[in-house]
Design a protein that fits this description.
Strand content: 25-35%
Oligomer: single chain
Shape: globular
Strand order of the largest sheet: 2-1-3-6-4-5
Order of helices and strands: HEEHEEEHE
Number of strands: 6
CATH class: Alpha Beta
Number of helices: 3
Distance between the termini: 12 Å
CATH topology: Dna Ligase, domain 1
Protein backbone atom coordinates (compact mmCIF):
# COMPACT_ATOMS: atom_id res chain seq x y z
CA UNK A 1 0.00 0.00 0.00
CA UNK A 2 1.89 2.94 -1.14
CA UNK A 3 1.63 6.62 -1.66
CA UNK A 4 0.99 7.42 1.99
CA UNK A 5 -2.71 6.63 1.87
CA UNK A 6 -4.12 5.63 5.20
CA UNK A 7 -6.96 3.22 5.71
CA UNK A 8 -10.21 4.59 7.08
CA UNK A 9 -11.83 3.18 10.18
CA UNK A 10 -15.59 2.97 10.33
CA UNK A 11 -16.84 5.08 13.24
CA UNK A 12 -15.24 5.21 16.66
CA UNK A 13 -13.77 1.96 17.83
CA UNK A 14 -12.62 0.68 21.17
CA UNK A 15 -9.00 -0.35 21.30
CA UNK A 16 -8.87 -4.01 22.27
CA UNK A 17 -5.43 -4.92 23.58
CA UNK A 18 -5.79 -8.67 23.72
CA UNK A 19 -3.90 -10.78 21.19
CA UNK A 20 -5.82 -12.85 18.68
CA UNK A 21 -5.01 -16.32 17.40
CA UNK A 22 -2.55 -16.35 14.53
CA UNK A 23 -4.04 -15.59 11.12
CA UNK A 24 -1.70 -18.14 9.55
CA UNK A 25 -4.36 -20.75 10.33
CA UNK A 26 -6.60 -19.15 7.71
CA UNK A 27 -6.66 -19.91 4.02
CA UNK A 28 -5.25 -16.98 2.02
CA UNK A 29 -7.07 -18.06 -1.14
CA UNK A 30 -10.43 -18.18 0.65
CA UNK A 31 -10.08 -14.76 2.31
CA UNK A 32 -8.87 -13.09 -0.90
CA UNK A 33 -11.69 -14.80 -2.81
CA UNK A 34 -14.29 -13.50 -0.37
CA UNK A 35 -12.87 -9.98 -0.67
CA UNK A 36 -12.83 -10.13 -4.49
CA UNK A 37 -16.42 -11.42 -4.64
CA UNK A 38 -17.58 -8.62 -2.34
CA UNK A 39 -15.88 -5.98 -4.51
CA UNK A 40 -17.66 -7.45 -7.55
CA UNK A 41 -21.00 -7.17 -5.73
CA UNK A 42 -21.59 -10.91 -5.43
CA UNK A 43 -23.34 -12.32 -2.36
CA UNK A 44 -21.39 -13.97 0.42
CA UNK A 45 -21.56 -17.74 0.08
CA UNK A 46 -20.51 -19.14 3.44
CA UNK A 47 -19.58 -22.74 4.05
CA UNK A 48 -20.15 -24.32 7.42
CA UNK A 49 -16.41 -23.96 8.14
CA UNK A 50 -16.37 -20.41 9.46
CA UNK A 51 -13.78 -18.85 11.71
CA UNK A 52 -14.31 -16.76 14.82
CA UNK A 53 -14.70 -13.04 14.09
CA UNK A 54 -11.51 -11.01 13.96
CA UNK A 55 -10.79 -7.37 13.14
CA UNK A 56 -9.77 -6.85 9.52
CA UNK A 57 -9.01 -4.16 6.97
CA UNK A 58 -9.48 -4.58 3.23
CA UNK A 59 -7.60 -2.36 0.80
CA UNK A 60 -8.41 -2.14 -2.92
CA UNK A 61 -5.86 -0.96 -5.47
CA UNK A 62 -6.12 -0.34 -9.19
CA UNK A 63 -2.83 0.16 -11.02
CA UNK A 64 -0.95 0.28 -7.69
CA UNK A 65 -3.07 3.23 -6.53
CA UNK A 66 -5.31 2.81 -3.49
CA UNK A 67 -9.00 3.10 -4.44
CA UNK A 68 -10.54 2.18 -1.12
CA UNK A 69 -9.74 0.85 2.32
CA UNK A 70 -12.10 0.08 5.18
CA UNK A 71 -12.04 -1.95 8.36
CA UNK A 72 -11.76 -1.63 12.11
CA UNK A 73 -9.98 -2.67 15.26
CA UNK A 74 -13.07 -4.45 16.56
CA UNK A 75 -14.94 -7.27 14.80
CA UNK A 76 -18.59 -6.44 14.19
CA UNK A 77 -19.93 -9.61 12.58
CA UNK A 78 -20.23 -13.27 13.56
CA UNK A 79 -17.26 -14.64 11.57
CA UNK A 80 -13.95 -13.68 10.00
CA UNK A 81 -15.41 -14.39 6.59
CA UNK A 82 -18.26 -11.94 7.20
CA UNK A 83 -15.76 -9.32 8.44
CA UNK A 84 -13.75 -9.63 5.23
CA UNK A 85 -16.91 -9.41 3.12
CA UNK A 86 -18.21 -6.32 4.98
CA UNK A 87 -14.86 -4.51 4.86
CA UNK A 88 -14.37 -5.27 1.15
CA UNK A 89 -17.89 -4.10 0.29
CA UNK A 90 -17.34 -0.87 2.23
CA UNK A 91 -13.91 -0.32 0.62
CA UNK A 92 -15.35 -0.71 -2.88
CA UNK A 93 -18.47 1.39 -2.38
CA UNK A 94 -18.37 3.46 0.80
CA UNK A 95 -14.90 4.91 1.40
CA UNK A 96 -15.69 8.64 1.49
CA UNK A 97 -12.24 9.54 0.16
CA UNK A 98 -12.79 7.81 -3.18
CA UNK A 99 -15.50 7.37 -5.75
CA UNK A 100 -16.99 3.83 -5.80
CA UNK A 101 -15.09 1.32 -7.88
CA UNK A 102 -16.35 1.40 -11.49
CA UNK A 103 -17.17 -1.78 -13.48
CA UNK A 104 -14.30 -0.94 -15.86
CA UNK A 105 -11.91 -1.35 -12.91
CA UNK A 106 -13.17 -4.83 -12.00
CA UNK A 107 -10.76 -6.57 -14.38
CA UNK A 108 -7.61 -5.06 -12.87
CA UNK A 109 -8.14 -4.46 -9.15
CA UNK A 110 -6.08 -6.09 -6.40
CA UNK A 111 -7.16 -6.62 -2.81
CA UNK A 112 -5.19 -6.83 0.41
CA UNK A 113 -6.77 -8.42 3.46
CA UNK A 114 -5.10 -7.41 6.71
CA UNK A 115 -6.14 -9.62 9.64
CA UNK A 116 -5.37 -7.97 12.99
CA UNK A 117 -3.50 -10.27 15.36
CA UNK A 118 -2.91 -7.92 18.27
CA UNK A 119 -1.81 -4.56 19.63
CA UNK A 120 0.93 -3.83 22.13
CA UNK A 121 1.56 -0.49 23.86
CA UNK A 122 4.80 1.22 22.81
CA UNK A 123 6.53 4.32 24.15
CA UNK A 124 7.76 5.56 20.77
CA UNK A 125 7.91 4.65 17.10
CA UNK A 126 11.68 4.17 16.63
CA UNK A 127 11.43 0.38 16.96
CA UNK A 128 8.65 0.00 14.37
CA UNK A 129 9.50 -2.10 11.32
CA UNK A 130 7.65 -1.80 8.01
CA UNK A 131 5.79 -5.01 8.93
CA UNK A 132 4.36 -3.31 12.04
CA UNK A 133 1.27 -1.17 11.94
CA UNK A 134 0.73 1.81 14.22
CA UNK A 135 -2.32 2.83 16.22
CA UNK A 136 -2.43 6.28 17.82
CA UNK A 137 -5.14 6.95 20.40
CA UNK A 138 -6.01 10.41 21.70
CA UNK A 139 -9.15 10.23 23.82
CA UNK A 140 -11.75 8.59 21.60
CA UNK A 141 -9.89 9.42 18.37
CA UNK A 142 -7.78 6.88 16.52
CA UNK A 143 -5.23 7.08 13.73
CA UNK A 144 -4.30 3.77 12.15
CA UNK A 145 -1.43 3.08 9.78
CA UNK A 146 -1.46 -0.49 8.53
CA UNK A 147 1.64 -2.66 8.15
CA UNK A 148 3.69 -1.82 5.05
CA UNK A 149 2.15 1.66 4.72
CA UNK A 150 5.37 3.59 4.53
CA UNK A 151 8.73 2.62 5.92
CA UNK A 152 9.87 5.60 7.99
CA UNK A 153 8.46 5.42 11.55
CA UNK A 154 8.44 9.22 11.95
CA UNK A 155 6.40 9.66 8.77
CA UNK A 156 4.01 6.96 9.88
CA UNK A 157 3.53 8.76 13.21
CA UNK A 158 2.66 11.97 11.32
CA UNK A 159 0.14 10.02 9.24
CA UNK A 160 -1.41 8.56 12.41
CA UNK A 161 -1.83 12.02 13.97
CA UNK A 162 -3.39 13.30 10.75
CA UNK A 163 -5.71 10.29 10.50
CA UNK A 164 -6.84 10.80 14.09
CA UNK A 165 -7.48 14.48 13.43
CA UNK A 166 -5.15 15.41 16.27
CA UNK A 167 -2.44 18.08 16.03
CA UNK A 168 1.00 16.56 15.81
CA UNK A 169 2.76 16.33 19.16
CA UNK A 170 -0.36 16.15 21.34
CA UNK A 171 -0.18 13.51 24.07
CA UNK A 172 -1.37 10.19 22.70
CA UNK A 173 -1.12 6.49 23.40
CA UNK A 174 0.78 4.47 20.80
CA UNK A 175 0.35 0.81 19.94
CA UNK A 176 2.22 -1.56 17.66
CA UNK A 177 -0.35 -3.28 15.44
CA UNK A 178 0.56 -6.82 14.47
CA UNK A 179 -1.29 -8.35 11.58
CA UNK A 180 -1.09 -10.87 8.77
CA UNK A 181 -1.48 -9.57 5.22
CA UNK A 182 -2.83 -11.48 2.27
CA UNK A 183 -2.46 -9.73 -1.09
CA UNK A 184 -3.75 -10.73 -4.47
Amino acid sequence: MGRGVLCAVSGLVALGLGPYASASAYDETTLLGIAREAVLGKPLGLSSARHAPRPVFVTIEVGNVVRGCRGGLVARTSSLEEEVFAAATAAARHDPRYRPLAPAEFATFKVTVTVVEGQQPISGVASLTPADGLVLQHGNRFGIVLPWEGHDPTTRLKWAYRKAGVPEGFAAKLFRLTATRFRG
